[in-house]
Amino acid sequence: MMLTIRGVSYHVETYGEGTPLVLLHGFTGSAENWHPFLAMFSQYKVILIDLIGHGQTNSPSEFERCSMEESVKDLHAIFAELHLKNFILAGYSMGGRLALTYAVLHPERITKLILESASPGLKTEAERMNRRENDRKLSQFIKEQGMESFIDFWENISLFASQKALPEAVQKKQRSQRLENDETGLANSLLGMGTGSQKSLWDSLDTLKIPVLLLCGERDEKFCLIAKEMKDLLPLSTFIKIIGAGHAVHVEQPQIFGRIVNEFINS
C-alpha cells in the first residue's frame, strides 16, 4: 500500500496477524530484503517499509527532509496510520540506527528492539564532520556517475567483502534490488541520515529499559566491537555474534538469523 505521510508517499507492506513486528532495511535496501523471512516470521504481523529515498517511497529533493529526526516523525505517523500501539522493532545497519533512534524517543511503544550491525552514531563532532565530508563526496559521486557506477563501487567496499562468497544468484538479486533505487533518494539519504549527520545516542543507551538484541557477524569486526560496547550500556541487552557472517547477517546466514530473532522474541 502507499501512505501519504507528512507530504511523502511511503510504500508499506503488511503480512499476517499476531504480534506486530516492524523490519527496517539498510542503506540501498528496500522492503524486498525481508521477503525471504515472511515464512519464518509467519506468527507475527510483519510490517515492511521502504524508508525515505528508497524503493517505491518518494525521494524528496531536499536532503534535510531525509534526516534521522524527520524519518522518526514519519515512522511515528506510519505507526499511527496502521493503529500500532506496541510492537517489536528491528533494523539493519541504517535501519538499525533509525530503529534505535525511534526507541530512544518513543520507548513506551517498543516491547523489544532488535539491532543488526547497527550503531548509536559517532561519539565526537570531529568524527561526524569527517564522515559528513565523506558522505558529501559519495552523494556527489551518485549524482555525477549514476546508479550503476555507484552500486559497482558500493558492492566492492570492505564492509561487504564477505558477501563475495554468497551464491551468484543471491548476489545478483541483491544487485538488482539495489539498482531499483533512485539516485536522488540515495544521495539525499547519505546527506540527511548518514552517520555524520546523526546525533550521537551513546549517552542515551542507559535510559532504554526494554529488551534489546544486538546482532553482528564475526567477520564484521568494527560492528561487533560497537555492539559489545553497546551491550555494556544497555540495561537489558543480549549480544550474539554470528559465525560465518559479515555485516549483513540476514543475507549471509538467513536461517540462523531467523532462528535467533524468533528465540529472542519468544524468550
Automatic annotation (TrEMBL):
AB hydrolase-1 domain boundaries: 20-253
Signal sequence interval, chain numbering: none
Record field: catalytic activity: 5-enolpyruvoyl-6-hydroxy-2-succinyl-cyclohex-3-ene-1-carboxylate = (1R,6R)-6-hydroxy-2-succinyl-cyclohexa-2,4-diene-1-carboxylate + pyruvate
Function: Catalyzes a proton abstraction reaction that results in 2,5-elimination of pyruvate from 2-succinyl-5-enolpyruvyl-6-hydroxy-3-cyclohexene-1-carboxylate (SEPHCHC) and the formation of 2-succinyl-6-hydroxy-2,4-cyclohexadiene-1-carboxylate (SHCHC).
Assembly: Monomer.
Protein family: Belongs to the AB hydrolase superfamily. MenH family.
Protein's name according to its UniProt entry: Putative 2-succinyl-6-hydroxy-2,4-cyclohexadiene-1-carboxylate synthase
Organism of provenance: Metabacillus idriensis
